[in-house]
Amino acid sequence: MALMYAILSSAQVGINTQTPQTTLDVNGSIQLRNELQVDGNPGTAGQIYFSQGNNPADLNDWKNVNVPFLEDGQYQLVNTYAVKDQVGIDFTGYTAPTFSCSNPIKEFPFTETFETSNQTHTCWTNQRVTGTSDWSQAAGDGYNSGGSGTVRYAHGGSGLNARFVTTNNRTTKYISPTFDLTNVSNPKLSFWYGQRANGGNQNQLKIYYRTTTGGAWSQVGLTPNSFTENISNWTQVTVDLPNKSATYQIAFEGISSGGRANVFDDVEVYGDSPVVVPITDKNYYNSALSTLNELITAKNWTIIPGLDLDIKINDSHNKISMIFQTGVESRTNPGNNTSAQTEGNIRYMCGIFRKLKTAPDNSAILVALRGDQINNAVGKENQLKAQSIYTLTYTVQDVPAEEYTFSVACRRLSLNLTGTGSEATSLLSIGNAVNGSGTGKTNDFMLNSVLKVDVIELVTVTGL
Amino acid sequence: MKNLFHLSFLIGTFINLPAQVAISSNPAYTVPAGVDLSVDGSITVRDKIYAGGDGTTLGNPGKAGQVLVSQGPELPPKWRTLNIPNIEENAFYLIYNEPFTDYSADGSETNEGLSFAATGLTDNAPYNYDATLTNTGFTTINGLTKSFTVNTTNASQVYITFEAVAQINNTGTVWHGTDYACGIFVDDKLKSVRRVTLQAPTDAGGVFMTYTQIALVGDLGQGTYTAKVGCKRLLNLSGYNSNLGIARQVYTPVNTNLNNFMAKSSLKIEVYEIPNMDNGTNVLDFVPPTP
Predict the structure, then answer these.
(1) Between vectors from CA A75 to CA A74 and to CA A76, what angle results, nearest 5°?
(2) What are the Cα distances from residue B130, in Å, to A43, B133, B187, B225?
(3) Is the per-residue pLDDT at A177 higher than 80?
(4) A436 secondary structure, DSSP code
(5) Is A185 in contact with A271 (CB distance < 8 Å)?
(6) Looking at beta carbons, which residues of chain A come within 8 Å of B88?
(7) Residues 27-86 of A with CB under 8 A from B
(8) pLDDT category, A280, cuts 50, 70, 90?
(9) What Å distances lie between residue B87 and A27, B90, B218, B220, B274, CA to CA?
(10) pLDDT at residue number B283
(11) Is pLDDT of A91 > 90?
């Protein structure tokens, strides 16, 4: 076909234009179905066509670049953040706080059975209004007549209840422990009561509340607002508690006219949903499970102080790959330094938390977690402790594009021992050495922790 | 006077020229073999360049930011996206990444990794940062010795991951265990060390575990360094008196549940740098002419 070519013997050719500006001027698009040679050179695969401005064609050429190519839909490592720490967390002995009536009750529902096993039963106090009689905690109303279901016995048939007196002309309030109702939605009071007549004599009962310790009493909104009837069988009453406060108290006022003693039992204070106050003591062994996205305040998580990373994510199509490693050391037996360790372990959990960089610390949510355990080194001296390594590798996807702070926090789950030791004395350190406690063979450096976060984003080639 | 030749046509018309077309003011100009259109001069394209396509399918006009890349002779060029990271100030970027496994120089897997006898142990822990290889007394896994380079004069972070399987030759009738430590050294200075216990209860023989260690080294300036991994057996527990293998199987009978290949160790070195913005590596393999 060598004869089948045309030489357009002209200096300039225009396509769809009468004023071509170059040798060939296409006023429109062109399509290359085959190679594009520049000065006879089609380039080798992977070379890029480079302009070098208004220079001769041999300078506008195919060139290599030391840069790889991307395809739509690939993920690309955008940025890496890494940090290490050897301050760590020292978990020491845990002793449950002792119960005190002076601390407001914060967990609901609250139940008072007046049994001796119910530790709040000692928190009820008397306030005499008329006369010198007090409420007591006893079985039934003290009048030995009547069958089951009557107030002859405590509510439920056995045990103890609150009991007033049979003496005429006595009025005394029996005051509940203090409640912190701040977090209780639509608080309610329910209780069981009874008051039997003795001939024509009938005791009465009124229910009061106050919002501050030592404040004025108001009656709760019952209709009628006092119980005046002869009640032989345990009867339940439920009433809304108005004007909730952090120092809320309820009073049961017995008004004796010489009838059988007033009784009440199984008092409950509750709201629309339960209120649980997490134990924030870092040393607490909390075997409750954790779930992704739980708040750092939901359990007794403790942050490893030096591992916070500020991380910027630019594309919401991403994979965030995290790796955390730390040394762990424990001593479950506080006894003789040179005696041998026996079988046992401490279980714990570490997780990675994420919050918006500008948000408060308590808004951090759990994005990665694993539990593990450190086993005692059986046969090793107690003072040499046990050592182990904890590694957490985790990837999350499609984190919204924001600036974040990532942190690592850990908590203890349980202590499991065959030999000597207790929650009150066992030691666990994550990210540093157990302090003191005999002559060790480790230091903080040997147990340090490392966090690395890779930000991998989706390659998008936008716009036509 | 310019000698103009116009190929102008109306919508709906086309000119089907012969197989080879040349545009030149030189009557003797010839079109090289295999070329369909040869322009002896410059080309102006006032709209898109479609790459590929055929008589029924339009080629690809590319997307914003793509470059025209040769696919070699006999193929149309292709629009592609360059992988050029968006470098931000004071951020770390992966500059060097090399993972590798332990291989003995003589090709024998039985000479890979380490085996420690039970006798003559000294527990010289604890170890401090930058302690020398000599002072720690660690034995190196020779196949994992590797050099790497930090290019930047800005801050760098070198992230080294070591993994191996450790095994003891315990019998499975009594509690047995041994303490050992492994360290990651850079230029024979200790940068990371972990101490662990490998122990077995009475009902397990030839117990082994995977040992993973990560070092993050942030204090290396510009230069070339050598990474090494070394280990030391420190202390026997419960009267254990047989071998400890690190990256080597030591249980007798051999190859029960574990062999040398399965115990093989690996090391990965990643160098993250804050790039020198004014003195970075040139992405081009040529020097563009000065305008």
Answers:
(1) 120
(2) 52, 9, 10, 14
(3) yes
(4) S
(5) yes
(6) 79
(7) 27-37, 40, 42-50, 52-53, 55, 57, 59, 62-72, 76-84
(8) confident
(9) 39, 9, 20, 21, 9
(10) 56
(11) yes
CA distance B139 to B137: 7
**Residue B149 — very low, low, confident or very high, per pLDDT cuts 50/70/90?**
very high
ipTM for this prediction: 0.79
CA A363 to chain centre: 10
- Is the confidence at residue A457, as pLDDT, over 80? yes
A23 closest CB neighbour out of B21, B43, B159: B43
Rg of chain A in Å (alpha carbons): 39
List beta partners, residue A174.
Answer: A126, A252
Residue B231 has pLDDT above 70, yes or no: yes
Q: What is the mean pLDDT of residues A198-218?
A: 96
Confidence of residue A34 (pLDDT cuts 50, 70, 90): confident
Most A-contacting residue of B7, B50, B182 (CB-CB within 10 A), to test interface: B7
The answer to whether B289 contacts A59, with C-beta atoms less than 8 Å apart, is yes
| CB < 8 Å from B in window 346-405 of A | 375, 377-380, 384, 386-389, 391
Q: Do B218 and A84 touch (CB under 8 A)?
A: yes
Which residues from chain A sit within 8 angstroms of residue B286, using beta carbons?
63
Give the closest-approach CA distance of A380 to chain B in angstroms: 6
Q: B217 vs chain A: nearest CA distance in angstroms?
A: 9
Q: Are A181 and A260 in contact (CB under 8 A)?
A: no
Ordered DSSP codes for A208-240: EEESSTT---EE---SSSSB-S-EEEEEEEEEE
Nearest residue of chain A to residue B192 (CA atoms):
A446
Q: How far apart are CA B39 and CA B243, in angstroms?
A: 78
pLDDT of residue A346: 97
Interface test with B, best of A1, A4, A13 (most B CBs within 10 A): A13
Q: pLDDT over 70 for what percent of chain A?
A: 95
> Residue A103's CB: how many other CB atoms inside 10 A?
13
How far apart, in whole angstroms, are the C-alpha atoms of residue B289 and residue B291?
6
Among partner residues A23, A43, A387, which is closest to B40 by beta-carbon distance?
A23
A225: its two tokens: 């607002």
CA distance linking residue A454 with residue B213, whole number of Å? 18
The answer to whether A288 faces chain B, any CB pair under 8 Å, is: no
Tell me the average pLDDT of chain A.
91
User: For residue A360, is the peptide bond before it cis, meaning its omega torsion is within 30 degrees of 0?
Assistant: no
pLDDT average, residue stretch A242-263: 96
Q: What is the pLDDT of residues B193-220, one digit of tens each?
A: 999 999 999 888 899 999 999 999 998 9
B183 contacts on A by Cβ (under 8 Å): none
**CA dist., res. B146 & res. B73, Å (int):** 41
Phi, psi of B208 (to 5 degrees): -140, 160
pLDDT given at position A58: 59
- A47 CB neighbours in chain B (<8 A) are 69-70
Distance between CA atoms of residues B25 and A57, nearest Å: 17
- In single-letter form, the type of residue at position A399 comes to V
Q: What is the pLDDT of residue A342?
A: 94
In which band, very low, low, confident or very high, does the pLDDT at A45 lie, cut at 50, 70 and 90? confident
Residue B284: predicted pLDDT: 57
Among B119, A58, B155, A225, which residue's Cα sits nearest to residue A50? A58
Can you spell out the DSSP letters for A236-265?
EEEEEPPS--SSBEEEEEEEEESSSPPEEE
